[in-house]
């Protein structure tokens, strides 16, 4: 039986049981396999089999819906546990979700979930009327279904602050109306398609669609199970339950982990058929040389589309550098060109070493990398010697490469910002700056030659996503590490006692975008710095000096006699331990958790820098006459 | 499959689904097994169908009174596609 190995480990009481169970879970595709693994997990827990590693706080997740949610909940529990985010589940009553959401006293609110999965009943997503009713009438009902759901979801989110996962609706898989199904909004087929479309396109940022329509589409007829509905009100077949559970676990993982950033590609038999060193430019298969060549070209086109949505591309090949680059420069059928790659390592060193070097050069963690190769030996070397890198072994048939990469699930974006679209260009600009730095010997000359320009503004609504990104992800150059959500930022912008400013920097090589964030509060005649952080991309450019100049300027306008700043040490912000001292502040108080610094504005002289500030915070949202009695903690 | 083989397979399924050991006999029913409730029953039957390559019809498992009758049902349904 397939569970023999984990079972044996469990009976022996070996802690190896847990990694083995996790490994089996990753490859278990069907319901019964997953369920059996989950049963083993519960047995191990019942026997208190020690599990080495960090104890994670449990994620509180509520499940509500128009279906019976067992055994779905068991699969979900298991997957979450195995993937490293154990859950504490609250499960609603069968088809009771409307009252569970609308009743303030309901258990779901007392539970205080961090995530809610809502599976609305498909029985409520059907046109009530005649197939021949006018389109406007049918569309009005569809609109109502969408609005009711979005309203329910908004209520849930407003009362709990939770992220909401909402399943959409599977489409029918039987012939039934035949071709007529697409001629009327009154058919389940078209009605549900319309509703799904509007749910997806109209989803607010806290709402994540659990795409049941897509999962059922992939599974076809095997997604449904009429008997399971009649006997125990199941959402679908066991196969579909497993798919849904995996999808929810994937969505949860995506909330906590950013998608991968870099795709590292092998060359021979990955981007073209054949081996360039042996076959030469004329001999490799690419594009119109052959059907197999067309398959490789299509693979390159798909990879180019990944670059378009913000993924960085790199080459890592066991090859002579000149021969490898020549293909990119000279082969007429190449879709990918040298400038599409942010790194190009063609040499005879181990690929794991090359990828490590790439990580250092690009200043990215190894866990942002994905390595793709057709050679299992190369994949194994990277798995062993750079285990944080995600790897994907391409199958034997080049015509499947696009599908395999499309199914890898490593690059799914949550949303795509304009920053993402510019990313490759930003890396190229950075390389140019590095080249300049190595050519110039003194810092002053270097900085002046960058021709830096900065603009400083108060927080703007359009900046909120980028501000939230910086505030929540900056760890190193961050004096107080205070995290705020987008909703918190909007509240801050409306608060007359506080002011947020951000700085953008560009130079002659490119635009760094928004790279520093400061939040200040006026307390009597003291201007308190609640938040000061900066992107590590712009260290040593004198950005912090200009930001300080601006803080001092604002302090003077607000009749403050001094500016106060705090340093809260964390494992990651060691680099700013002496920051305030360097900026000319004096230490006024300290204990185990923090240090407090002060800067006398009357004796402050602005720092000179090589940055030309072309815009300053103009609208003063802080009222100079207003006092805030409570000090910052 | 004969009756003995079906019982043996069922024992494997029960061992996989339930935490506490259960001895499968013809007289065994849900009333005898605390873990065997309406919820675990769903997963149990999914596992039985997979292990024995059968597909039951709506309502007929519920009509069986004990494991012996379930085995009769399995034997009846085996061989149907």
Q: Give the fraction of residues assigned to helices of chain B.
A: 40-55%
Number of helices of chain A: 24
How far the N terminus sits from the C terminus of chain B, by CA atoms, comes to: 15 Å
Q: Return the structural class of chain B.
A: mainly alpha
Shape of chain A: globular
Q: What is the typical, i.e. mean, pLDDT of chain A?
A: 92
Low-pLDDT stretches of chain A: 627-633
Query: Which word captures the global form of chain B?
Result: globular
- Got a strand count of chain B? 0
The low-pLDDT segments of chain B are none
- Radius of gyration of chain B (CA) equals 12 Å
- Helix-strand pattern of chain B, N to C? HHH
Describe this structure in words.
The complex is a heterodimer of chains A (633) and B (81). Chain A is of the alpha/beta class. Chain A has an eight-stranded mixed sheet, sandwiched between helices. In chain A, helix 1 (4-11) packs antiparallel against helix 2, helix 4 packs parallel to helix 11 (238-256) and helix 7 (135-160) packs across helix 8 (188-201). Chain A starts with a helix and ends in an 18-residue tail after the last strand. Residues 627-633 of chain A have low confidence and may be disordered. Chain B has helices spanning 3-17, 38-52, 67-77. Chain B has 81 residues and is an all-alpha fold. Helices cover 51% and strands 0% of the residues of chain B. The two termini of chain B are 15 Å apart. At the A-B interface, helix 3 and helix 10 of A face helix 1 and helix 2 of B.
